[in-house]
Design a protein that fits this description.
six-stranded antiparallel barrel; 14 strands; single chain; disulfide bond; Peptidase S1 domain-containing protein; serine-type endopeptidase activity; about 0% helix; Thrombin, subunit H; glycoprotein; six-stranded antiparallel beta sheet; about 210 residues; secreted
């Protein structure tokens, strides 16, 4: 996360990290399931991907280690073509089922999901993005970082020929220069922003880091 802050233990306990952390992250949503971007797991559906949780340091000696039993990619996700450039990232979402039940603790626990009737995030609403991705001159972060960003009008996020579809929304912060970066793919954008969650308004993952300029 570019322009963000280092997280403290227990602050974002649903954040997962793939062991090859160039592939990105995921969000724990139950004691068996995690949510990520299809682009972060594409091509690995038949491999036992290993994920770390319960840590804020990617070199920690005692992570909770989880092996994926099954990866379910959205059936309408547009996969990387065998030749030529990718056309879009529509339906860039996937579920990961772990082989074993995740041992929940204050350091590792699920984030909530919005219900079906919940309204979409309004433009200007502040949320928090997190990950172990790039944070400075392209360097990946050893420490989990987070940044507060807001939803933008989709027209502000058009980049090259890549379309912003109805299944996407756009977020960032040009004023404070905060944004997700390479290596954050698959990680969460959650609301309300970090530090503002309550029992009545718990943190919910409302977006998944997918693509950007």
């Amino acid at each position: 996360v570019f322009g963000g802050n280092p997280a403290e233990l227990k602050q974002i306990p649903w954040q997962l990290l793939h062991t090859d952390f160039t592939r990105g992250g995921a969000s724990l949503i139950s004691d068996y399931w995690a949510l990520t971007a299809a682009s972060a797991v594409e091509g690995f559906e038949n491999y036992n991907m290993t994920w770390f949780g319960g840590i804020i340091d990617s070199t920690a000696k005692n992570p909770v280690t989880m092996k994926a039993e099954k990866i379910i990619i959205h059936p309408n996700y547009t996969r990387v073509p065998q030749s030529g450039p990718r056309k879009n990232f529509d339906n860039d979402i996937a579920l990961i089922k772990m082989f074993d039940k995740v041992p929940l603790s204050p350091n590792i626990r699920p984030v909530c999901l919005p219900n079906k009737t919940q309204e979409l995030v309004l433009e200007g609403t502040m949320g928090t993005v997190s990950g172990f991705g790039g944070f400075e001159k392209g360097l990946k972060s050893r420490i989990l970082r987070y940044g507060h960003i807001q939803e933008y009008p989709s027209k502000l996020c058009v980049f090259g020929d890549m379309p912003v579809t109805d299944n996407m929304f756009c977020a960032g912060d040009d004023v404070r220069r905060v944004d997700s970066c390479g290596g954050d793919s698959g990680g969460p954008l959650f609301f309300p922003m970090l530090g503002h969650g309550t029992k009545e308004q718990p943190y919910e993952v409302r977006g998944i880091v997918s693509w950007g300029p």
